[in-house]
Design goal:
0% helix, elongated, 6-stranded mixed sheet, 9 strands
């Protein structure tokens, strides 16, 4: 089941740790996405796919939050790296995939963008 909510997320007002691997830079920011899909892969693990608008000046990526204990919903941020001009030719673009083996909450995941977020619930059973 997917739950969607729009609007700004006040918890991101200070851009708390949205940077991959501890890198702090004004080159990274939360970006919007258009849809998500979660399916079981051939290994039996869930795989997240995220779509969005490709911007030639932004390299999108998925940034799972780190938690000391497993949360109800594991937050996965959609972030973009502002590229230098001209952008390199081998830039990763949407759609993006992420194996959720190590990033699944007790109830599911929440994908967070700049102005929207979507919760996906684990199937019951």
């Amino acid at each position: 089941m997917v739950h969607s909510k729009g609007g700004t997320n006040p918890s991101f007002a200070n851009d708390r740790d949205i940077y991959p691997k501890g890198i702090k830079s004004e080159n990274y920011k939360l970006i919007d996405f258009t849809k998500i899909k979660v399916v079981k892969g051939i290994t039996g693990e869930y795989v997240l796919t995220v779509w969005g608008k490709n911007d030639p000046d932004i390299e999108p990526s998925l940034n799972p939050r780190q938690y000391p204990l497993n949360p109800d919903y594991y937050e996965i941020e959609v972030i973009g790296k502002c590229l230098s001009s001209p952008p390199p030719k081998n830039v990763k673009r949407f759609p993006l995939d992420l194996d959720l083996k190590n990033y699944m909450g007790e109830k599911g995941i929440e994908v967070i963008g700049a102005t929207n977020s979507v919760k996906w619930d684990l199937p019951e059973g």
